[in-house]
Task: structure prediction
Amino acid sequence: MNLFMLLAIAAAMVLIQFVVTRWVKLNRLAWMGIWWAALWAAFSYGINPPLPNSIIVLFMAIITIALVAYLSADNEELKQAKESIVRFMVTRQYRVALLIVMLVIPGAVAAWIFASMNEAPQPPSSGRTIHPPPPSSITFQGTSINLTTANNPIRELQHTDEAAFAEHVANGRRIYFENCFYCHGDNMEGAGMFAHGYDPLPANFNDATTIAMLQESYLFWRIAKGAPGLPSESTPWSSAMPAWEDFLTEEEIWDVIIFLYEFTGFEPRAQGMPH
Amino acid sequence: MRILLTLLLVYIANPAVAQQENDLGTEAQRAEGKEVYDIKCAHCHGYEGDASAVATPYLRPTPRDFTSGNYKFRSTASGELPTTEDIKRSIRLGMPYTSMPAWEGILSETEITNLAYYLKTFESAFDGPYGNPTVVEIPRAPSYSADPDHLARGREVFEANQCADCHGENGRGNGESAPELVDDWGYPIRAADMTKRWTFRASATREDIYRTFMTGLNGTPMPSYEQTIDEEDRWALVDYVWSLSRDTPDYGTTVTVQGRSGELVLGDSLFEAAPETYFPIVGQIIEPGRAFYPGVNGISVKAVYNESEIAIQLQWHDMTAETEGMNNPGIEVPMFDPAQPDTLMDGWSDAVAALLPSRTPEGLERPYFMFGDSRFPMSIWYTDLATDSAAVLTGQGSGRIADNGIALERSASYEDGVWTVQFKGPRSRGELTMSEATFVPISFTVWDGFNGERGNKRGISAWYHLYLQPMETQSAVLPMAKWFLIVLGAELLIVALVNLRARRRKTA
Result:
């Protein structure tokens, strides 16, 4: 969301509604034009990351149809609207304005063609699924782990044996700073010293849309199987996330998961809740 | 020891130093600093501040050993301790292109102040007479001047002071003594590449450059020139160094490949007019052979094509050319070579590769960027710079790289710190066709033999693209005119009809 832009659009609408109408009377047709323009501006400039052009065209087509339907639902209004258009076309007094409009419309079409033909070509963009559904079970170093029921065995210690739990956190810290921070960053913000060379960027664990909304078993899968374990909608061929099953033990992975939550202060999503 | 001696000399020369209060913070501030330190810093700098910590063996430069009192970034004279403000600034801004992150925005100003006081407790000299160092005044920078005489003067000062011995004739970090440089802890250290000032450790404004050669970088071979460079020459030197680099790396994502008519003859003139794109190179730390401190940090790429062939030029900065020994992407490497003081290795040559998909990709699918996989193999345009040949290898993953004897034309040269490698091959081979007006995935790998890089221990890049610009671009004028007239005609028709009808109604 680009709040600043959306606010500016809303302010312009309010200005037209309450100020401009004092001097100029706007008929239904003009209002619909203004609404159309405002919605187009909101879709084009008010949303971050920007919507693809094809989506904007689709939205605007729907809105155009809706506005036409709205107008034609009432015979009287439709007639009024039609009459105002006809008046614009036949009244001598509007001749110059008509001429301008008649030149501006094809001019705009030509400009649009020029822009689209001179557009720098865009590489195929990656509409990557960041959190694909996990498999129901994985084979980890020869044993099968059921991801729908697996719990982090270290979690229990959090309430039963604080000293032992702290040791696991410390071990997780060691594992993280031996293996992960080059990519995920010191502060887990996804900006490690090598992050700028990878695409997609390493996950930012401080962001509420990563580990904060995932189950620990999901993290286990992602850490154990890395990029090569992803389905194709998640572009496994371009992610730098290593498959740690070759280098870490099961307990080490659970330890580093504990550390991710301890360091960021997030709670994992409880087991059994849908993704 | 060296520090203590210099400090002692300063002390004898200037006993007044001892009389001022040292800025050590309060007991409470240091205690709060310790709390943050143990969570955020200790895994690199060590709980005792001595840089013996879990991450240390994987990092070069190694995290600062605070018990040594050596700080690179100081506003104080060579060999002296830093001020509290200096330490705070290093914490705030970090050290670019090392593992030392910038803590600004993550830690509060109070936390950073407390940390600085806590760091001082690791070195007792902060508490003694030397804890109050002499600040070297950095005058405000006059505005940058690109006047040729001024820059020529800067170049003279650069030569007269032998900056080139370490930094290289043109500042590319490839000076004659550069390969032997070690820091005070015996670890190899590389002289800064002045053509990439975004990699400077202690920031890169013109004042920073001035300060760097005035104060030197303690703990490194980078000396102080406070005594040797006259005041009126200092800004000339700064501006000369400044003139060697662009402001930012300007990392790109696509190489625009221009069409050429006629034969592609490898050589400098072939690529002269071709647009250049610069890509980041980072360590391969995904599979065994993890390269935590790759020798190369970026690669510049140009390419051109004709009806049947494509030529690609790769250029990168390398301190030394290793043209002896051998290299190969398939060599087996241990999980990682620890950063011991003696890791400079003989026997490995420099090498480079451009990685392409083995077939024309459909949609987003491409080979796994680590040398491909069996689902989608990779074509590896590879050359070992100890040889004078190049080949197209097939990669199905690390350790699964086959040489099917497909030769590739190549030319290679090394000059003043820059490797230039040019490949030429057909645009269409096997199932891969690089058509006009399409994006072809490409990725790069560089091996710095000096750094022991071989096999999977290498500098890598993500997937980027080559875009083959159509030889003949269609002009927009005709379609524009066509549609202008069509729309205008339609409008005229509508207006005419409406007018006609209105007139008829009036007369009726």
User: Anything to note?
Assistant: Chain B touches chain A through 59 residues (CB under 8 Å). Chain B is about 25% helix and 20% strand.
